[in-house]
């Protein structure tokens, strides 16, 4: 029997349609709840957390569900708080280039709305048609265009957050030039929802580019010293790509039909400036390499495919035989990305897993996607982590079935500043009701 004797307490301030119960079926990715609630206002979010905090109930937060396999050592909690019905634009100051939006808003819907005003949020998360803006901010998500855009943290001006005791606080402001006091926003961005439920987000906007293109430079010889030499020359130039990403041969084959290490360079500006940078790449192009330039519409199509190559926790979980999916985020010094992408390529033969990987030579972040049997996946993750730490970097597992998350340290070793993170958690959420064991060191 499910522990649902407290269901009536929830329906005291939510309608029957907003509280869903049923016989619990374990989900392979975990992070589930015996009862799912769908608040439609900030007041209802506050009431749910206040009830959970006073009654000792654990709460797990979900937006679009794309990150369901990211962290979490608890398979099922008392309450799954879904923000699916808490969405929409609160305020759009087009002239000031800012927008305030509810956290359950699907990222692509937000971008589609802003496109009517020739504006956008300068973030490029994976699976934008499912991911919510709240989830993107809570995970501080970003994609290859982080080089030109910055991280999710860089787009946030202000937040409204509901603490675990139901208190609503506001951090930051609603204007771009806001420098008063401590930057409290950074406390919640990237905290994986362990400190509070982000209810509203104010973001600074950018105008849509007049034109964009994508230059793909492939190295069929596999000589990574040529890649390094080209990267150094290009990054030392005056060019301003929004993306300078190295694709593994397997990923390059999937995206453009050419199995070779490939550099993807994206440019966004007025048309003449974009073409000038394309010509610069042609002049710098090493011998025995292949170049392909995708104009605007083809570039957009490429990125639409690119952002859906990794696993998605929102999709129905299906495994083929014993094959599972995993995703690992690796951070190293910029050009050390080359070593990580090479190691990922070699691991396909060593660990007998299929791997597709990419990494930014301008920002040092790599994403590695794997498919294979459980033991092979675990072995590959361990080898990647050794490679990353050997370079002075880190490796975080962003997607893995719950059963394997019990065996793999998702976040790696506790950092030296862990006592600060734990102290903040104890102060804000002393009962540890919110996204318990979802963050670094089991916070």
Automatic annotation (TrEMBL):
A GO MF term: oxidoreductase activity
For this UniProt record, give its keywords in alphabetical order, as a comma-separated list.
Answer: FAD, Flavoprotein, Oxidoreductase
Q: Which InterPro entries match?
A: FAD-bd_PCMH, FAD-bd_PCMH-like_sf, FAD-bd_PCMH_sub2, FAD-linked_Oxase-like_C, Oxid_FAD_bind_N
Instruction: Please tell me the species this chain comes from.
Output: Parageobacillus galactosidasius
Residue ranges of domain FAD-binding PCMH-type in the record? 29-208
Q: What is this protein called?
A: FAD-binding oxidoreductase
Source organism, top-level taxon: Bacteria
